[in-house]
């Protein structure tokens, strides 16, 4: 595991460098919100029915049709937040830390596309099997929507832009932060714990927390963070975790979304209600299966994964 974070010590590694890189990343994230702000102001000026009550409802349930913006356009504008944030993080790592950005993903600085594709397709298949079982258990919980031409646009956005969002979250939390904390504290477990906390806090303001409750949704976010963190620590690189995260969001965007979801799209199915605690249990079960398959496929040595050597 040491090789995964030892590149931290070869770059600028003072508190100053971390503070400025994180602030730059946050600035990038908020800069990415400017196109959405412009689109919302344009829509509000054009439509007189967008009042305070509508905006409050939109904050709780970000359905862009409420403010007369095409859902695909709104989806793309939200993803721009993360495009700008990833670019800002790259600038910080490359020019403030003076570090090869790709060494955040793997010790050798290479991106293993085979790992990413295998992780994405395997997790997509597992999610699909689970959803089919849930559909047969309670088909009344699902509303089907006939795909039209806009679904093709959604598909393109999901394939070409959505992975940037998931890549940013993985690179920032389970790459940049996990490695930095693990190296400077000499504790991989502490880096693992910080990545879980930051990932959960990043999702704490999602609209799902208003509809389904903060702590019930936290159980899901924490379960996901633990799974993704274990994948990174066992595999000693990020591609599998990025693949699993990407598959999760693509599945939600294209196939099954639910009322109150952070990413509201015209997916093929809408789930009328969800139970966050059940979702957490499901991700734990699927996660154990995925970890076992990956352990066999990539011949992980998990016995020493949390050792600093």
List keywords for this structure.
3-stranded mixed sheet; 309 residues; 3% strand; mainly alpha; globular
Assembly type of the chains comes to single chain
Q: Strand order across the biggest sheet?
A: 1-3-2
User: Beta-strand percentage?
Assistant: under 5%
Tell how many strands the DSSP assignment holds: 3
Morphology: globular
Major pleated sheet: 3 strands, mixed
Order of helices and strands: HHHHHHEHHHHHHEEH
Number of helices: 13
Question: Could you name the ranges where pLDDT drops below 50 across 5 or more consecutive residues?
Answer: none
* Radius of gyration based on Cα positions: 20 Å
The overall pLDDT average reads 92
Question: Helix coverage percent of residues?
Answer: 55-70%
Straight-line N-to-C gap: 7 Å
Which class of secondary structure composition applies to the elements? mainly alpha
Q: What number of structural domains do the residues give?
A: 1
How are the SSEs placed, and which strands pair?
Layout: H1 2-5, H2 15-31, H3 34-46, H4 52-60, H5 71-96, H6 113-137, E1 142-144, H7 149-160, H8 162-185, H9 188-203, H10 208-212, H11 214-235, H12 239-254, E2 256-258, E3 269-271, H13 276-298
What does this structure look like?
This protein is mainly alpha-helical. It has one domain (2-304). It contains 13 helices and three strands; from the N terminus they run ααααααβααααααββα. It has helices at 2-5, 15-31, 34-46, 52-60, 71-96, 113-137, 149-160, 162-185, 188-203, 208-212, 214-235, 239-254, 276-298, and strands at 142-144, 256-258, 269-271. A three-stranded mixed beta sheet has the order 1-3-2. α6 (113-137) packs parallel to α12 (239-254) and α11 (214-235) runs parallel beside α13. The chain is globular, with a radius of gyration of 20 Å. The model has no long low-confidence stretch (mean pLDDT 92).
């Amino acid at each position: 595991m040491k090789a995964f974070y030892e590149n931290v010590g070869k770059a600028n590694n003072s508190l100053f460098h971390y503070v400025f890189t994180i602030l730059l990343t946050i600035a990038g994230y908020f800069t990415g919100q400017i196109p959405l702000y412009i689109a919302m102001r344009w829509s509000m000026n054009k439509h007189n029915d967008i009042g305070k009550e509508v905006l409050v409802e939109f904050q709780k349930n970000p359905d862009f049709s409420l403010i007369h913006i095409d859902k695909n356009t709104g989806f793309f504008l939200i993803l721009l937040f993360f495009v700008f944030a990833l670019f800002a993080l790259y600038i910080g790592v490359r020019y403030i830390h003076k570090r090869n950005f790709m060494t955040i993903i793997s010790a050798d600085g290479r991106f293993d596309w085979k790992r990413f594709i295998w992780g994405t397709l395997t997790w997509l298949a597992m999610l699909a099997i689970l959803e089919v079982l849930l559909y047969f258990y309670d088909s009344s919980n699902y509303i089907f929507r006939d795909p039209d031409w806009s679904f093709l646009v959604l598909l393109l956005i999901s394939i070409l832009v959505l992975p940037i969002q998931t890549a940013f979250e993985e690179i920032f939390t389970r790459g940049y932060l996990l490695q930095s904390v693990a190296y400077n504290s000499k504790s991989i477990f502490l880096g693992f714990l910080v990545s879980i906390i930051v990932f959960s806090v990043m999702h704490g303001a999602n609209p799902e927390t208003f509809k389904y409750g903060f702590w019930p949704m936290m159980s899901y976010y924490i379960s996901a963070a633990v799974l993704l963190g274990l994948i990174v620590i066992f595999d000693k690189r990020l591609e599998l975790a990025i693949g699993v995260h990407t598959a999760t969001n693509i599945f939600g965007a294209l196939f099954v979304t639910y009322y109150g979801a952070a990413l509201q799209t015209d997916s093929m199915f809408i789930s009328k209600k969800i139970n966050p605690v059940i979702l957490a249990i499901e991700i734990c079960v699927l996660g154990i299966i995925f970890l076992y398959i990956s352990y066999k496929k990539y011949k992980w040595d998990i016995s020493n994964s949390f050792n600093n050597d």
